[in-house]
Write a structure and sequence with these properties.
Layout lengths: L4 E3 L14 E4 L2 E4 L2 E2 L16 H18 L7 E8 L1 H4 L2 H12 L5 E4 L11 E8 L6 H8 L7 E5 L2 E7 L6 H18 L7 E8 L5 H11 L7 E6 L9 E7 L8
Parallel strand pairs: 5-6, 10-11
Antiparallel strand pairs: 1-2, 2-3, 3-7, 4-7, 5-7, 8-9, 9-12, 10-12
């Protein structure tokens, strides 16, 4: 089994919050979510581009650079997940066309989930999964990834563990994040794994203004190991009346991250 490796590159905007820009393991490269904002000369992220088309292209360019840094070429994207705000979701045909145009093909898995808001109030956030393993087919990889975010609880698929639709009780987002990650740690331990083996998280939060509570709690929980790649979306319809929902991908215990 391969170890979890954190991927960072100066050819994509730097990580914000407590996440990795990409993580690679078992021949897969999981990219964090990016918005359609260019890199400023300082290396930081500038304001989002003016049009939806430009934002999609910038998202894909950032993801391409992260995939390449993880050893996956542009023609090996298995999955692309787009999270557009309502006005952009109404133009999802444009988003799909721009993704296919940028890559030169349509990935086997393309997910389109409407949300309320993303960082810097951009039109959308996009993340993806690419293959660095030349011996695995895109079809095989798609079947491994297909259960992610579907159903509830822990699912084993290929070399990965999926924890789908995780929610937790708590008086505020900080408590819910704390309780949810503790529950995830317990479930992963029962499956022979641990939080440090997390590769990717798709995070849905009910309100934009409470986002810092999530960042502070993840900073504490992930202080001693490389954090997973992640996308954070403001999507109250996805949190089932809670402040938070997270879908996770992790390695089993034999492939320990650092």
């Amino acid at each position: 089994m391969s170890r979890k490796l954190r991927i960072e590159t100066d050819k994509a905007p730097p990580s914000h919050g407590y996440r990795s820009n990409a993580v690679t393991a078992e021949g897969f490269v999981f990219t964090a979510g990016h918005i359609g904002a260019p890199m400023a000369p300082s290396g930081q992220q500038a304001e989002p581009a003016a049009t939806l088309e430009e934002q999609v292209d910038l998202c894909m360019r950032h993801m391409e650079q992260l995939a390449l840094a993880g050893g996956a070429p542009k023609d090996r994207f298995v999955e692309v997940a787009a999270f557009p705000v309502p006005n952009a979701f109404a133009r999802q045909d444009v988003i799909r066309q721009r993704i296919a145009s940028f890559l030169g093909y349509t990935p086997l898995l393309v997910h389109m989930q409407p949300i309320n808001d993303v960082a810097m109030h951009a039109f959308l956030e996009i993340d993806g999964v690419a293959l660095s393993d030349p011996d695995m087919s895109l079809e095989q990889a798609a079947e491994i990834l297909r259960p992610f975010g579907q159903g509830e609880g822990l699912v084993r698929s290929g070399p990965f563990l999926f924890l789908n639709r995780m929610i937790a009780s708590g008086a505020n987002l900080a408590e819910q994040t704390h309780n949810l990650l503790n529950d995830a740690a317990r479930r992963l331990e029962e499956a022979g794994s641990a939080l440090l083996n997390l590769l990717k998280m798709t995070v849905y939060i009910s309100e934009y203004d409470i986002y810092p509570q999530f960042n502070e709690e993840t900073r504490r929980q992930f202080a001693n190991f490389d954090p997973p790649a992640r996308s954070v979306l403001i999507a109250p319809l996805m949190t089932s009346g809670s402040a938070l929902r997270i879908d996770m991908i992790a390695l089993p215990g034999e492939a320990i991250g650092k």
